[in-house]
Amino acid sequence: MSKTTNKFSPEVRERAVRMVLASEKDHPSRWAAVTSIAGKFGCSGYTLLEWVKKSEIDKGMRAGVPTELADKLKALERENRELRQANEILRKASAYFAQAELDRPLKR
Description:
Elements: H1 10-23, H2 30-41, H3 45-58, H4 67-103
Helix pairs in contact: 1-2, 1-3, 2-3
GO molecular function: DNA binding; transposase activity
InterPro entries: Homeodomain-like_sf, Transposase_8, WH-like_DNA-bd_sf
Keywords: Coiled coil
């Protein structure tokens, strides 16, 4: 699991992405626009480029899994993992108590 912290708020990210998309026509390439704007926000060009790509995916302009669906999938996978662990604990407890019942002396 990643231990990175989000140093930039969603509003800052959105603003940076908007600036890249708006200034693309003023630069010879997208990368030139990204590096120009990344310095103003104090992030790396690669980070800003990933924000731009993610924004395009979320808007349907680029193929990929939107953030909302990715977050939902991650939550469902976590829940599934927890339920499997709970089932395993219950299965072992059931087997333990069933064995204990068999080992108990009979009362007559």
